[in-house]
Amino acid sequence: MNVRSQISMVFHLDKCIGCHTCSIACKNIWTDRKGAEYMWWNNVETKPGTGYPTKWEDQEIYQGGWEQKKLKLKLKGTSKSKGLGNIFHNPHLPKIDDYYEPFTYKYSNLSNAPDQEDQPTARPVSQITGKNMDIKMGPNWDDDLSGSTDFARQDINLENLTPAEKEAMFQLEQMAFFYLPRICNHCLNPACVASCPSGAIYKRGEDGIVLINQDKCRAWRMCVTACPYKKAYFNWNTGKSEKCILCFPRLESGQAPACMHSCVGRIRYLGTVLYDADRIHDAANSSEEQLIDNQYDMLLNPFNEEVISEAKKNGIPDSTIEAAQKSPVYKWVKEWGLALPLHAEYRTLPMLFYVPPLLPVMASLSSRDNQQQSDKIHKKGKTWNVDWIYDTSTEELWSSIRQARFPVKYLASLFSNGDEERITKIIEKLMAVRIHRRRVTVGDVTDDKAESALQKAGLTADEADAIYRLTSLAPFDERFVIPPMHREEAIEMMEDTGEYKGASGFGFRKEPKRGS
Are 128 and 101 in contact (CB under 8 A)? Predict the structure, then answer.
């Protein structure tokens, strides 16, 4: 057992309101420089949609992530050796139009225009060339399903849906969508690290944050191709690659990353998890059916005495172990089983997990005997008989999950590598918490129905209350459990002297297994 610590995150998608405050906070701090205008280290996409850069999920186009070939794990589109053949022409590299050409407006036209009959306008100009341009797309061009014919209907995750399911998603009265915020996943098996010919990208040993050494970067841009989430970017002004740094200067001073601190919906959670680094290669090289389970098995119980002992042998401080025991991420992922990685099939073992959104369910209507149960609605002096009622039984609710406006199959394509049953179980748990809390706070749900819902979902009342608290009531220090970083020990580990001479780019004292 080779115990390491990793800063990881959970995003609760049922709480995201798509306000983009997180994106603006990140943009103002990190990517407001020349050459970084088009970069959005944090972006919020509308699903269904093609995202940013457009169709980033289609690895037939971009060739990102890992794949199994003859039971061996290999980079899909590039590697340190294979990349030499694509130095001058990389067909899998996103173009600026796949992102968008960054623009501003010539505001001086409004104040300096001469007298004229027409109203002056601030024409859009390119932030790259400075020339007038016609805006064709932006980082959230398909927000709220705008342009759904060109964007939402091109979502690669719709491919497995039947034509009827696909069409139902875009019917005006039944239309549904949700928001998907994305940052770098700071993966355990990062393809960007493995692909870099100059060794500029490394994973910090003390917290697992993936960074790019700007002094070593030689603009090969293999990291841009290799990252299946397209969260590595090329700065055309400096000639270096850049990416999300998880605001590590803020973490080192005990502050949450900017995107998380500013989140209006409080959807974001951050904490430390302990994992077994010896299992990285085997987990990433698992069969399609076992990918998520094996990634979960890597995450260790921070209360286990053997795990604690092995962690201390690897130099993990007591404060980090204590933070792992209080981590909200461990609760969401391991204790409650409510959070899943995004596109586990890319085999990078991402350390950002998502709680799927509750599917909008069409309330079913049941007829009843007017003579015995007819109710009356009084409005504006008129009276109507109510001949239909909503069926709120838990049995009807569970069957309705499969007939929801948002197909389970779509969410399974995103979060569970096609496993619909895993998604269904999570939705049942989330619905059971709602039913239980409805009984507690409103009282219009009977004890039998609430107990039946909890039992069906495999939850106790105490677990449902704990999930509710962390979802709705948790203060800052429960949502963000940030351990002291102990940078002095990390620097000592990386010193190029004595025992640690030639330490790997992962920041580990010993080089991890090949392929990890």
Answer: yes
**Cα–Cα distance, 438 to 47 (Å, whole number):** 29
Q: Take residue 49 and report the two structure tokens written for it.
A: 């949609």
pLDDT in tens, 126-168: 999 999 999 988 888 889 988 888 889 999 999 989 888 888 7
The stretches in the chain having pLDDT less than 70 are 79-87, 361-400, 403, 486-516
Residue 363: φ, ψ to 5°? -60, 130
Q: Report d(CA 400, CA 237) in Å as an integer.
A: 53
Q: How far apart are CA 105 and CA 124, in angstroms?
A: 4
Cis check for the bond before 53: say yes or no (omega within 30 of 0): yes
- For the chain, what is the radius of gyration of the CA atoms? 25
Q: Tokens 């987990």 — which residue?
A: 283
Q: Which domains does the chain possess? A: 267-359+404-485 (3.30.70.20), 365-389 (no CATH)
Q: Is the peptide bond before 94 cis (omega within 30 degrees of 0)?
A: no
SS (H, E, C) 399-431: HHHCCCCCCHHHHHHHHCCCCHHHHHHHHHHHH
Residue count (the chain): 516
Beta strand 299-300 with 268-276 is antiparallel
Q: Where are the beta strands (DSSP E) in 19-156?
A: 43-47, 66-69, 72-75, 103-105, 124-126
User: Which tokens sit at 22?
Assistant: 């997180």
Give the C-alpha separation, 259 to 269, whole Å. Answer: 11
% of the chain surpassing 70 pLDDT? 84
Task: Report pTM.
Answer: 0.88
Mind spelling out the 3-state secondary structure of 159-220?
CCCCHHHHHHCCCHHHCCCEEEEECCCCCCCCHHHHHCCCCCEEECCCCCCEEECCCCCCCC
| One-letter amino acid of 168 | A
Q: Rounded to the nearest 10 degrees, what angle do helices 318-325 and 305-313 cross at?
A: 140
